[in-house]
Amino acid sequence: MAFARYRIPDEPRPTGLIRYAVDPLWPLMALMLSGNGIGLLWFAFNARALGSPAVLREAGYIVASLLGCVVAALAIGWAAEHGYLQGSAVKYAALAFPAVKLSLGYALYLSQSRSAEIVTHYGGVLRNGAVGLLVCFLIGRTLFAEVELPGLLAIALR
Fold first, then answer.
1. Using CA atoms, how far apart are residues 116 and 47, in angstroms rounded to an integer?
2. How many domains does the chain fold into?
């Protein structure tokens, strides 16, 4: 006789990485202060550590953030090359990069905050991410600055 296991659809799945999970505010701060690459990597790890039931949606947000920056770079480059954007208009159009990064970062924050709240409500403890944020800000930012990346990849990750 097989037993069906009761599962709440929004309930985080238990993982062995839960001891490394942090409040999603910290990866969002890393995204803002250290760049897209570091922040998105931390969001991806935190989704796995929290056992987020929306991990596929969150992976979609991560891919959309990277592709959105690449598409914005291509569109701005094409428009500037063909004379549709000149001078200061290119600088204003470049505001698309932080807009894409922050809007999708905030969507990731909202998605993960549900799982984090459920974990803490039932007695789980989330780590303080301040040390991780400091490491990301001091070490990660200089690491990305020193590494030579191809043009579009550098735009997407910084």
1. 10
2. 1
What size, in residues, is the chain? 158
pLDDT digits (tens, 9 = 90+) for 44-59: 999 999 988 889 999 9
Domain contains 107:
yes
Is residue 9 in some structural domain?
Answer: no
Domain around 100: 18-157
Q: What is the pLDDT of residues 64-78, one digit of tens each?
A: 999 999 999 999 989
Q: In the block, which residue shows the tokens 């989330």?
A: 126
Please tell me the pTM assigned to this model: 0.84
Comparing C-alpha atoms, which of 85, 57, 76 is closest to residue 152?
Answer: 76
